[in-house]
Amino acid sequence: MYTEGIKAHQKDKERDFLMKKMYNILFPIFLLFLYPMTWIGILPINFIIDLLVFDISMRHLKIENRKKLLFPAMWKIWSFGFLSDLIGCTVLVVFVQIATFIPSLYDVVSGIAWNPYSNIVSFLLTVLSILTAGYLIYIFNKKYALKKTGMDEIQKHRTALYLAVFTSPYVLLIPTMWLY
């Protein structure tokens, strides 16, 4: 009887701690809505990175008329890249939402929230999220953003691949515990 009470108390403490971790995962998303000024920094930085990768990839592939192609396609590339990042991050959020009801997954959720290198499952789920975003960046850019650029299929493929590889959300691999 006494040990059951201790176990129940321990599970309650773990659930409370897990909910605090959930807050830390979701806080950056809420931060964007609670403090709209953060968008002022995030969106232009994301745009500049996409612009640089797109321009460098076109230079590397020796695509002519870069300036003519750059800005009409750039807005689509930037929009689809941001959408892909959000969808990729959703992989982690959905897993964490499911895992909050399974106490044995506490270490995995804690790893995702604080340090993806703390255990192999947290690391693999974070990498899965990044790969999902990268894959979507590739698909969206090849099929939609670069559709009316006049590039041939090989150029579209390579440009979309450069964008996917160099603009995926690798920032998810940075341990959150470094920021607190």
Number of strands: 0
Q: Strand fraction band? A: under 5%
- Taking the alpha carbons of the first and last residues, their distance comes to 39 Å
Which stretches of 5+ consecutive residues score pLDDT under 50?
17-27
Calculate Rg over CA atoms.
20 Å
Morphology: elongated
Give helix and strand order, one letter per element, not per position: HHHHHH
**Relative helix content:** over 70%
Query: What count of domains describes the coordinates?
Result: 1
Helical stretch count?
A: 6
Summarize the main sheet.
none
Mean pLDDT value: 82
Given the helix and strand composition, which structural class is it? mainly alpha
Write the topology of this structure:
Layout (H helix, E strand, L loop, with lengths): L1 H33 L2 H24 L5 H34 L6 H9 L5 H26 L7 H15 L13
Structure description:
The protein has 6 helices and no strands. With 180 residues, the protein is mainly alpha-helical. It has helices at residues 2-34, 37-60, 66-99, 106-114, 120-145, 153-167. The protein has one domain (2-178). Helix 2 packs across helix 6, helix 3 packs antiparallel against helix 4 (106-114) and helix 5 packs antiparallel against helix 6. The longest helix is centred in the middle third of the chain and has 34 residues, at 66-99. The chain is elongated and about 70 Å long.
